[in-house]
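Thread amino acids onto this structure.
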């Protein structure tokens, strides 16, 4: 426990604590029955605080979150979210975990080596792949009579971008997740119109949005520190 307290900054501890309390209180007020949703939210926000540190524990926890979130999505017939997480986010979280483990910064297993900027060629490939995946999923989701088809399809696109950038160890993975959070907020607000208990999921993604914003800022700072460390070592040699 002492190591964890020393590992995270005071701001990060406060951010995680406030996030957990907000999610829990919201659950008690609006839900009280769907405990799986509460567990999913708490697991997700814990993963994000580790992601902010560039720690491989983050994507490992996201593997668990993807499984539980898929079950929740199935309960509301959000087949887009279900397919996205089981067929894309889950395997990509596993791949991301492996990539982060294999690329520690200076042998430091608790922090991943942040990659350099993506080349123009890779950005083009990423855009093409995202377009193909989005169009493919649109017709799949349409055939499944997915609730709120357009937001669900947009969620697929933003999720793919996020997991792709996460696997590539780019700070912009957090930015992409932030956009995905906004889409999911809209998606679950629509669900809340039918069932008020889903307001807890809406609040969850608002919390995720704030955490992803912090993660993006944190990774940009870490990238500068890593680059400075590399320069100092090269200068020393």
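Threaded sequence (237 positions):
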């Amino acid at each position: 426990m002492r190591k964890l307290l020393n590992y995270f900054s005071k701001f990060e501890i406060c951010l995680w604590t406030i996030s957990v309390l907000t999610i829990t209180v919201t659950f008690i007020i609006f839900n009280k029955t769907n405990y799986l949703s509460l567990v999913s939210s708490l697991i997700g926000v814990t993963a994000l605080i580790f992601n902010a540190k560039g720690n491989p524990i983050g994507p490992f926890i996201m593997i668990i979150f993807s499984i539980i979130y898929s079950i929740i999505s199935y309960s509301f017939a959000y087949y887009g979210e279900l397919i996205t997480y089981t067929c894309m986010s889950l395997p990509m979280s596993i791949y991301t975990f492996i990539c982060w483990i294999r690329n520690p910064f200076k042998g430091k297993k608790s922090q991943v080596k942040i990659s350099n900027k993506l080349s123009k060629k890779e950005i083009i490939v990423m855009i093409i792949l995202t377009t193909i995946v989005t169009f493919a999923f649109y017709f799949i989701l349409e055939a499944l009579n997915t609730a709120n088809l357009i937001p669900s399809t947009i969620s697929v696109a933003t999720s793919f971008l996020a997991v792709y950038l996460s696997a590539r160890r780019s700070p912009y993975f957090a930015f992409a997740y932030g956009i995905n959070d906004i889409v999911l907020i809209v998606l679950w607000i629509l669900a809340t119109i039918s069932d008020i208990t889903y307001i807890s999921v809406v609040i969850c993604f608002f919390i995720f949005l704030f955490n992803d914003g912090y993660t993006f800022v944190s990774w940009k700072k870490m990238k500068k520190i890593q680059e400075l460390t590399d320069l100092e070592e090269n200068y020393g040699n």
